[in-house]
């Protein structure tokens, strides 16, 4: 799955033109502010012109580091392309390139490139879906003085390999450790999530009944956080939370259940104030509004539901008061109308919810609490050239400004 793949996995093939318009377009029509939201345009654009920004993190220098999925490679003919089908079932191509990056964005809006040359795949548009899909670097964090990046993968074979021609295809579905500004020859390429998924196929409990449109050996590493001397990684296509040790070995921390006819599709993971892991799910088709949950995970125990009632979760975080923040890609679920917005929702101590922002948010794919206490969000996260990083200021958040101060 991507945020193209994540979306395709969540929806399955053969979706309708209406679904395609809701998920594939670069300019969704924005709906009205929901109850409890702050009002029109309740954010400031910090950076724009990004190519499909996904998750982001705060670096040791106080800047934001943003995984951008890139623009793929040159189209067919002439490019490194494989025949495939788009989410509507139409014949198209996946074209490989190395246009994915990690962007460095200061809180003042200065944008530079921290890493370049990461793998990127474009799924070329074909009727009835008018816009392309992109996959590339999806999750980023800092550890051991280096950037730690997880990359997505496309066109997987059952053994975890792909048939792209470029040698750089080996950078897909991997954990990459790199010092900003270095070339790929200096990177450490670690854990292979696709190989692990191929060797450890899903069961019916997570993948659901067998289907020709699904693969039980699929993989799509989408989010990463430091944990217990290694990393916890949410694999959206495997419906699982993996642990990568300091030596690069992968083990399974948790598998998320197939419930009410839908795969979990975990897209986000953070360590909570209590030391437990928290995982947000996108939720596959039929993806009803309010059907997604946030799980709490402790090693050796089955995941438990910490908070529920969300729609298409793409990221989670904790604010300075220890309250859970949830980012929704679409407040009406993946199959909702294109008039539905994204949203940032706070879970209060009594588990009631407050919508901190929604109007103006669209295709929201990543979130982080900045060093100033403000919330930073990747907006238009499945759009090449129009992606944004936006700031939701602490002064606009009920009960939050005094904590940041």
Relevant terms:
single chain; 4-stranded antiparallel sheet; mainly beta; 40% strand; 6-stranded antiparallel sheet; 405 residues; 26 strands
Task: Describe the secondary-structure layout.
Layout lengths: L1 H10 L5 H8 L19 E7 L2 E6 L5 E5 L11 E6 L5 E15 L5 E13 L9 E3 L1 E7 L2 E6 L22 E5 L9 E5 H7 L4 H4 L13 E7 L2 E6 L4 E5 L5 E6 L10 E6 L5 E5 L10 E6 L6 E7 L2 E6 L5 E5 L14 E5 L5 E5 L8 E4 L5 E5 L7 E6 L8 H4 L1
Antiparallel strand pairs: 1-26, 2-3, 3-5, 4-5, 5-6, 6-7, 8-9, 9-10, 10-11, 12-13, 13-14, 14-15, 16-17, 17-18, 18-19, 20-21, 21-22, 22-23, 24-25, 25-26
Describe the structure in brief.
This protein is mainly β and about 400 residues long.
Q: In terms of per-residue confidence, which ranges show pLDDT below 50 for 5 or more consecutive residues?
A: 8-40, 399-405
Approximate strand percentage: 35-45%
Main beta-sheet strand count, sense and barrel state: 6 strands, antiparallel
Distance between the termini: 40 Å
Count the beta strands: 26
Helix count equals 5
C-alpha-based Rg, rounded = 19 Å
Structural class: mainly beta
User: How much helicity do the residues have?
Assistant: under 10%
Shape estimate: globular
What integer is the average pLDDT? 87
Note down, in words, how this protein is organized.
The chain is mainly beta. It is 8% helix and 40% strand. The strands form six sheets. Strands 2, 3, 4, 5, 6 and 7 form a six-stranded antiparallel beta sheet that branches. A hairpin with a 5-residue loop joins strand 24 (366-369) and strand 25. The longest helix has 10 residues, at 2-11. Mean pLDDT is 87; it is low at 8-40 and 399-405.
